[in-house]
């Protein structure tokens, strides 16, 4: 008897999922297609959800309750297809077109539910340890007037930036920085750290007795990890400088022609904002950059900048500055200053003050190496690695078998964007190739002709599905355009890599979805921090495979609380969209669809993805490359997360489904036994020697200076491995 027969589960009590109202579903059937079989992929440590009254056949019918009928009646392995009223027998879905454009005119597609909902690993119960989250107060009641700033600067803050009261981090940082102290500044995402350093820089430079001249060159250097962040910081500084026209800001961010950057450097930039790689390129290749007058060195997202690949750049920059200018004020900032910052603080800070909003007692002078170590304990609790999360951010997690990941993501996007107004989503993936793949897949399927709005459905609902993508392999011009477009838009879905995780201040983002789990709790914090900024509301959803459920406890150990949303509830949204109606269900009203029909609708959607991918050999190869990229990224999880994210626990055939592939690619999965073991062993061995290198490569591609040679750029573009536009549009 299959494990999913007639099982009922209590839905978690803390189930709070804005936008969905399924209160009548007090109990929900056992997870779709859980199986009892040997050799199931590694189970998570959590206990499996308990079956209640499993073997007695159908559950007792309850009012307002959805339950799966017993397997004998409902285990729909294959549904007979009827063409013009004649049964045709069992036919594979591969031979059938995707979703018809218009119900009534075209035969409803044949549906095979067995492959998608069968043989999935058990979804474990999440034993969530409730932790007390670290909280920070965002605003103070104090105004900027109290800081003794130049009156024109105050009026610019009030009238141009339209801000009146200081945030907590600004209130704590600005006076210390104006006193000339080096500082480590930590406060939660979206709490106003940019102004916490920009205001003192502008105040001090405008007050210099000998008026700054453009030709003096840089007085302040601001290092940020990404080009978009450079653009954003530049914009803020430019606004603050409105009354002080003699101070010239400028940025180096790659993507722009080196020649024109050189020309701007030659003319003079007084406040220089740059990514580390780009600045190093200029230090090495141009004679137009000097640091003899540097007074400020600001390193925003300091912990990120320290990550693999950047440390060398920072050393080059620090050496270049120190060789020309002995005395300057240094500031490191991030929402997640951890022990990783120790080395950087040691080499760059002198007698720093550590500023933490969540623990005012830490706002004390600290010395030397100790400063750095104490900086890693800047949190409110005694725990070293606890991060504050904005109070109005609701964090969720859902456990989804690999096979169902793609349809679950699609259903989630449809649910938010088709049926609700003004929803702005950011979906994080683990590599550029994945972003490219899913971006084109969604464009061509969810917005393509095969999924044209069903009759009766408002066209505006479909037009709310506006997909954009952002990753490090895109040309800078396009990156900037996307960033600005998403920034200004009221709704839409941005598919991206971690290039968008740090520091970006995109207004009114309502949901953060993490399709691939982040590589560290710090990255988790930064990703979700793109919503619920500066006291606003926001939500996040982390999608995990059952074998990754332990990650919830890993987050809890960093004082991060997530509440569970059941996958079934996300898929339920398909009930509202008749494009996914299976033929079997005829004209049945959408509102009363049961779990079996939801399964079938999910299968219709999955079939549309698979049909699209399998329409040409080129697309299949493109999907395989995306799958390979996923596996490569999966192999780079750090050691302390390997027990949760290990390539060995991936069922390649199942993962392949989430790429619209019907089977696991041969070269990635050996079928069984020794062959498979030895392949995995080789993969593991190779991985050990390569993973560091690979991670560096991944980070490099995300945060490159943009100064690669022509050849390198071509290589980058090919890395997408996507088919030509022609094929994609066909
Ligand atoms: N005093 C203030 N009053 C109102 N809004 C403010 C104030 N200070 C900053 N903001 C706004 O808050 C938003 C977030 O600020 P900012 O981007 O500096 O946050 P952050 O702490 O650097 O976040 P992250 O850690 O994600 O980089 C911005 O839109 C900014 O304009």
Class derived from helix and strand content = alpha/beta
Sequence stretches where pLDDT stays below 50 over 5 or more residues: 1-108, 360-384, 669-730
Could you name the CATH topology of the domain at 389-447 and 464-581 and 595-658?
A: Rossmann fold
Strand residue percentage: 5-15%
Question: What ligand species are in this complex?
Answer: adenosine-5'-triphosphate
CATH class of the domain at 389-447 and 464-581 and 595-658: Alpha Beta
Give a nutshell description of this structure.
This protein is α/β, with parallel strands linked by helices and 730 residues long. Residues 1-108, 360-384 and 669-730 have low confidence and may be disordered. Bound molecules: adenosine-5'-triphosphate.
Kindly describe this structure:
Its EC number is 3.6.4.13. It is found in: Nucleus, Nucleolus. May have DNA helicase activity and RNA helicase activity. Probably have ssDNA and RNA dependent ATPase activity. Plays a role in ribosome biogenesis and TP53/p53 regulation through its interaction with NPM1. Residues 392-571 form the Helicase C-terminal domain. Among the domains are: 135-356, Rossmann fold (3-Layer(aba) Sandwich), CATH 3.40.50; 389-447 and 464-581 and 595-658, P-loop containing nucleotide triphosphate hydrolases (Rossmann fold). The protein contains 25 helices and 20 strands. Strand 9, helix 7 and strand 10 form a beta-alpha-beta unit. The protein is elongated, with a radius of gyration of 27 Å.
List keywords for this structure.
730 residues, alpha/beta, Rossmann fold, seven-stranded parallel sheet, disordered N terminus
